[in-house]
Structures
1.
Amino acid sequence: MALDLLPYAYFEGQFVPIEEARVSLTTHALQYGTGVFGGIRGYLAEDGSAINIFRLPDHFRRLRNSARMVKINLPYGVEDLCELAIELTRRNEPTSNVYYRPFAYKSGQNLAPTMYGVADEFAIFMTRLNEYYTNTSGLQVMVSSWQRLPDVAIPSRAKISGSYINSSLANTEAKEYGFDEAIMLNERGKVSEGSASNLFLVRDGVLITTPVTASILEGITRRSIIQIARDMGIPFEEREVDRSELYIADELFFCGTGVQISGIGEVDKRPVGEEYPGPIMTALRNRFLDVVKGKVPEYREWLTPVPIASPIPAQ
Ligand code: PMP
């Protein structure tokens, strides 16, 4: 989907109109993919008076970890990063749900694919965002012929710009074959995750997700769902998953900041379970959507509310 940008970005140490946030052709990150990024959602409060940013410090902790793994220098602490995102929200005065894209990257030039001696920069922009998938009646997915990149090649748990070639190949292949999305296996042939999301399945009433050692990105939505499921008393296992288990799962769904909780109706042309949407996914999704909208007091600490100066009622 095309970006629907908000007017201001944080770029090279200043808040600037988004049109002025431009980099040179010679930028190392553009040539070699030497950047790390985040994706964070902000939900417009029902009365339009604030944006509730979901797990903002946790997203910036992961960004700092991603930067550390690949030696990108990010000279801002988690609190500074949160403050920048909050200030950008104030300046943009959103009137819809939004998505933040923080980006720490090698902004200098160097012919060598090295991290040493190349300058770093940090930027954030914002775009409006509602649903990620147009198909809301059960995604049709395929197991990709592309493997999820192994941690021994590129750190899979880091959100590295260059790594998204792997996601793009899987996603593009799936779309070209008429599917909505791909599921990738890892280098050991075990189930890993989607092109931009983690994966859960339900078998015999047990919620299951692939482990952090399955070459997945350590998703913040995944972690939130595990916590919510535990609090709801849903039996849960984090374990290796075989491809053939996808074919006999009762329920299957992706989760991530963009996709939120998106149910899968068919995998490799086999219908998932007896009914769609299944009861456990439905219960988790309803609860999750209440949580992100600030309707559940126990999880309010996951939200960073940013009051909007001139509130416009939500549609
Ligand atoms: N895996 C990949 C490859 C992703 O791009 C994303 C989206 N960031 C996720 C999983 C889900 O992570 P999160 O819940 O933190 O958005």
2.
Amino acid sequence: MNKIVILTGAGLSAESGLGTFRDEGGLWAQHRIEDVATPEGFARDPELVVNFYNARRSQAHEATPNAAHHALARLQKDYDGEVILVTQNVDGLHEKAGGSAIHMHGELASALCGACDHRWPAPLEMAPGDPCPSCGAPAARPDIVWFGEVPYHMEDIAAHLFDCTIFAAIGTSGQVYPAAGFVQEALMNGAETVELNLKSTDISGAFAQHHIGPASEIVPAWVESLLT
Ligand code: APR
């Protein structure tokens, strides 16, 4: 049985108007990671962090999937085999396009209790100290994996990398591990490797095939080639 594992990054949602992190003027040029994407930053200034994610949540709420999201959802529906989407993105655009994805860095649409690990659908605007609907502790936080925390679903992802026939990375700079190391795991099991990006990346050398261009153009073309 053919299995394609596809890792997606911020570049996939760029043409839906959601900023990437490391491109010119990206999110990490506007905010310090240590201030808005670490547990220490959240402990130091919960208001700043909650508002950073409130702004991203409402942007993601308004955003619509682009042709690349739709092409990947089509691949999941029509491919003669399994298609596993593993996304580093915290927006819900794969799902809005009718796809399903493993969110290894969490989701803006989800809230997490820092005291009891309960999860619930996040309100558009969260506030520091919101009570957990399960244990009541004033410990609600964005359900986002911050730097220094362990990404979600790593066992499932490792199992998929172990037996995939094709591994593709779309719109990711390959600078953040463990995601940036997935291609090596796929290569060890003999998978075909494909990188789709606007330009070459730190991990381009690990891929056998490359498609260069905007995701909204190269992803539908790549999906078409897989389905015909
Ligand atoms: N089409 C295809 N690729 C694009 C496009 C586009 N229209 N626009 C940008 N890109 C590519 C860039 O060339 C770059 O390689 O998308 C990538 C974006 O890289 P990053 O901003 O680093 O985003 P990502 O790789 O997803 O970051 C990984 O880092 O900060 C953490 O948790 C955060 O999930 C994020 C992780």
3.
Amino acid sequence: MTQHFIVIGNPIAHSKSPEIHTQFAAQVGINISYQRQYCPDDAAGFTAVIEAFFQGGGVGANVTVPFKQVAYDCCAARGGLSEHAKVAGAVNTLLLNKALLKSGTPIAEAIYGDNTDGQGLVNHITSLGWPLKDARVAIIGAGGAARGVILPLIEAGIAELTLANRTLSKAINLVAELSVASETINDQQIKTCSTEALSGDFDIIINATSIGLSGDTLLLSDELSGHYAYDMMYGRELPFLQHFAERGAQTSDGYGMLIGQAALSFECWTGHTIDVVKVTKTLQAL
Ligand code: ATR
């Protein structure tokens, strides 16, 4: 029997998710169909698409730009949210809440949201062999991408977190919001500063800004150094990584995070565990 999945976005033609999930299915030996689903950029259109998909027998959906917050609102009003989705304020994985279905809730009311982005990052960093336990970590950026990774990094046992952003007030507000949204996070745990003022020696420095899309480069202090530098972007020249590589750091782009978050979605839909390292090698050879 074929299980049906989609990824919903706007635009969506560039999405690599169908290739990735097809490799996962081949690895564990199940039949799936995984399609790109375009959707008009409005909440009513999004809701109509996901309801029709699940009512038509769909098993799971990924959500990408610009619908992650819309998906959050949708699930909050229907089948519920995982802790990671609640704290991220965004949903990248949709599935049906089986307990609600069992108790007679209609399919459209049982759509549940999870967020695997942050854990995908943590799993990738771990697979690189970079130490997270007791690490001093800096994140640059205070938008949706940064928000989604903070709880999983804290759960991974990091010792210190500094959140730097061009607009300092956004970093301060984000920390305040997260400490309300999660019992695991308190505002004393996370330091904030402006991006230019970020200085000192960190184990891991993560670029969670959208600067890679613009071609600009971040203004960084000469007093900032890191053993490992990670850019959540991938598939293009990343000046952030060049900057730290020139100063002796090990670096990685976010391609492994993309595979990592996809693997976690696949696992939560199908119950099958993915050998992410093996699939990444296969995909890179394609
Ligand atoms: P995303 O969902 O990808 O995180 P976002 O919510 O728009 O996107 O956030 C973009 C982040 O990149 C913000 O932290 C933004 O900084 P500001 O809050 O000061 O806007 C950061 N960013 C984007 N362009 C930047 C630039 N040229 N220099 C520094 N930071 C930049």
